[in-house]
Amino acid sequence: MTSLQRIVILTGAGVSAESGLRTFRAEDGLWEGHPVEEVATPEGFARDPDLVQRFYDERRAQVIAAQPNAAHIALGRLSGEFAGELLLVTQNIDDLHERGGARDVLHMHGQALRVWCQSCDARHDWRGTLRDGPQCPSCGAVAMRPDIVWFGEMPYQMERIFDALARADLFVSIGTSGAVYPAAGFVAQASQAGARTLELNLEPSQGSRFFDETQLGPASELVPAWVEEVLGG
Ligand code: BV8
Ligand code: ZN
Description:
The protein has 233 residues and is α/β, with parallel strands linked by helices.
């Protein structure tokens, strides 16, 4: 696999499923009884800020309690040992890639362990709760929300992602249903730019037809084997 110079990886909730963090579309599309789009939208936050703050307080605690699994650890190894260029983009808001050893992870949908002050625009690492209206460490206002990209909001660092997709030799999608855009469109962009495309997923995704190759199985098995292959055994 030494011909590989530039890899872009996109991960979704499936890579953290075996760490006990729930995926989005496994059950009836509800989250603790709420349609995801209801609690993960600016309108939902405006309508019922307390509900949304509690929803993310709960997610933050779950992320802190979770442990990285073999897939996160294998990607951490790749991040450290791959001689070419690697961009690891995740849709996940957990920090399990980082705790698995990955460096420079691009969280296109934000992070559970960060908050964003709507008064002074500062962002802070945050492991506590927001339900009790804590003051912003920078400006003292009680105006912090989760630093998470909700439906209808622009994902982070899209230019950087598009540039990497345009130059990639290989695009790998791991543990995502291909249901949410713009992430779901990355495979088509990579393919049009001439990259080979590989999907590692428990079941076929909505975009499986766009991939050159799809391997079906749990990430904790498929990802370590694939990393081993890339790093030349
Ligand atoms: C934007 C943070 C525009 C919140 C998230 C109609 C058509 C097309 C698009 C739209 C449309 N209407 C609206 C849109 C746009 C919308 C969208 O795509 N909606 C969908 C529902 C149709 N997108 C947006 O709003 C995005 N923004 O478009 O902005 C814009 C333009 C200009 C100016 C301003 C704005 C923003 C989307 C981001 C929303 N935030 N997350 C939170 O986490 O609480 S999205 C959320 O769902 C996740 O972050 C994730 O990205 C996304 C998809 O979830 P997945 O990660 O794929 O997880 P899922 O459960 O779906 O699948 C898991 C997969 O893993 C499954 O395939 C399963 O088989 C597999 N699996 C399970 N276990 C394992 C496994 N695989 C391996 N091993 C296992 N063990
Ligand atoms: Zn502030």
